[in-house]
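Friendly challenge for the regulars: who can give me the structure tokens for this chain first? No prize, just bragging rights.
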Amino acid sequence: MFSPIDSKLVGQNIAKLRRHKEIKAATIATKIGLTESAYTKYERGETAITLDFLNKVAEEFDVNPAQLMNATPSNIIESIHDISNSAFSGNVIGDPTFNITNEAQEKLLESILEQNKKLTALMEKLAEKL
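First reply, four minutes later:
Bragging rights claimed.
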């Protein structure tokens, strides 16, 4: 069953990650086309997190949107570091420094990415019905 994005949890994750990276809320807000006031409402969980917002913020922080959704505020920083310190030397597919250490990992990653695409499409369809 589809469950909506937990705006409070995701907002807390975004705020904690932003502070960890020492970026001002106004800076992120401007980069994603919002006022600082509108942006901070997302961080506080006062505005429902949309997939569009989540993708824009994740892009600015150079993280996978799923990391912002699945981590808890108490472990978001460790979660991000665990991914970046794993077997991958880059953060994003398409990045020339992105290397897979072996073929099995590459197949696993391709499978995960395909599932992620399908899940995102399903979530978007369900969100349209709400």
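Helices lie at 7-20, 25-31, 36-43, 51-61, 65-70, 76-84, 103-129. Residues 11 and 43 are 4 Å apart (CA to CA). Your move, everyone else.
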